[in-house]
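Contributing new records

If you add data, match the layout below exactly. Sequence lines come first and carry their own label; structure lines follow with theirs. Keep one chain per record. Anything else will be rejected by the validation script.
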Amino acid sequence: MTRQRYVTEFGMGTDVHGSDMTKAACRAVSDAIRHSSLNFFKALGRTPHDMEIDVLIGVPDPSQVDVQSVAEMLPYGKVTVSAEPGGLSIANDDGTDPIVIANAGVKVYLANA
């Protein structure tokens, strides 16, 4: 079975205090999907539950991303989240509380029967 990509969204999220990679990643996913309204399901004879969603997160320390928490940002479909090095960390003046910036790419597929 092949998949057809229908949507690609991009987002950015930050954690200003605490260097929480997951919080920044969740905010990036929220930013990516906030302005989307997917209206093609009825025309394709499908539902939002039929979606296969691949999320790629870029953060300074991908090992600190709770991918399950990020996946829960998406209310429908089968969600797969992966994290890789990326994003940005901006140190404060004394280097104790950096701002973490995450980037998210969200790709939405439907499987072709």
